[in-house]
User: Fold this.
Amino acid sequence: MQHSPRRRSILLAGAVGLAGAAHLTSTAAAAPARTTPVTPPAPALIPKPRSLQMTGGRPFEITANTAVAVRHRAHEARRTAEYLATWLRRATGYAVPVVTSGTAPQAITLAADDETPSAEGYRLDVTHGGVHLRAAEPAGLFHATQTLRQLLPAAAESATPHAGPWTISPLHIDDAPRFPWRGSMLDVARHFFTADEVKRYIDILALYKINRLHLHLSDSQGWRLEIKSWPRLATYGGSTEVGGGPGGYFTQREYADIVRHAAERHIMVIPEIDMPAHVNAAQASYAELTCDGVAPPLYTGETGIPNSLCIDKDLTYRFIGDVLGELADLTPGPYLHIGGDEALVTEPEDYRSFISRAQQTVHGLGKQMVGWEEVGLADIAPSTVVQFWANAAKAQGALAQGAKLVLSPSKKAYFDMKYDADTPYGHDWAGYTDVQDGYTWDPATYIPGVAESQVHGAESALWTERVATFEEVQYMTLPRLPGIAEIGWSPADGRDWEEYRVRLATHAPRWSGLGWRYHRSVEVPWG
Assistant:
């Protein structure tokens, strides 16, 4: 810092005067210097909470005496407490017991709060004496633990314990999501990813309060789920992938384990079986699913190929009933996604008829139908969730029938779009989508004439024609995923790109600790 000549002379004069005073009163005790409490900067949380106040005072420290206390009636709260304690044990090396009775000084307490208006909302208070996480429902408590996780140093994400110190500045957070549907779609059909890899994907979703995992389980290049009534779908239709690799599929036990892993993190699995198009793998497995009774060869190409289930065959509807029935039994959530996109060789009237019958099947199984925007061309129930990806008119047609809209605009939320011309993976047909592009849009204003009340949420989509390994999935997901998480969770008027990109940069050490590869976008000041 530079001082003006006048300012410098005043400082020198003051110094001389003080020195003289000190000489005259050398036997007197020096007065203590006055200090002003310093409020620490707000933590770099993503998604940004609805309300956060730094309250000042001495920080809370996790020590060898810290416990996790449960004061919430729900059984799931105990499970969340165990999840948090397990994570803290790995990070710190401390015992971190979970207690349900008695007093626990210096505890992290999970408690009920019936005043929290949202099922996913929570309150979080940090004082020197303890941390309190309060929520009406277990989902809110879990989200609070993910906020707490981000309040700790990035070293806490390491697979081995670190020495700390593990301190958190005092604060109060009152938080709840803007939209109920905050999703991410992973295409396991074009390239197959194992159950363990999908569970790792779920873990990164949980950190950013994503609450829907949409699994694209079938396409022309592969069928990825064991169906016991039609076993060749998986054993033959799942035997390859784009480029001719060995492919693979989830056994029903593996799929159930994915669903359980997600549920423990309050993430709902939305399974998609694409129909009536994108069915080459199914038709290669069973010739009777074609109109001419001739099975096509397995397909390992990258681009889509025209095909359709045979709309006039009764067997077609037995097939979808069997497949969706087994899927419904394995999936406790209320939704089944039937795809419905790009049915380019299905006649419009046949398409409408097929979607109507598929919808009846879904409803008969006690589920709600989800479909891509094209299903809005058919007669659909108001309970339908329609996923917009490109065509506003089709989405508006669905809204006219009372459906709810989830936005996955290809120009903003498709994670298979390249960041820039140098990105080694993915496509560019919808344009390049760097981090700023993926952050600076709003679901309530993206489609003209669509009201916020008609929007159910937002969802990213990662198609994998040109994303072949899980390391490549990581690279295309980060650093874009936190942006769509914030779009779905945080109030629109609190979002600002310049402020966000600084927050985002601080998360890179956390990703490295988790062993995640990420793209170092030039738009983010990584430091």
About this structure: The chain has two domains: 51-175, 181-513. The chain has 16 helices and 19 strands. Residues 163 and 380 are 57 Å apart (CA to CA). The chain has a mean pLDDT of 93.
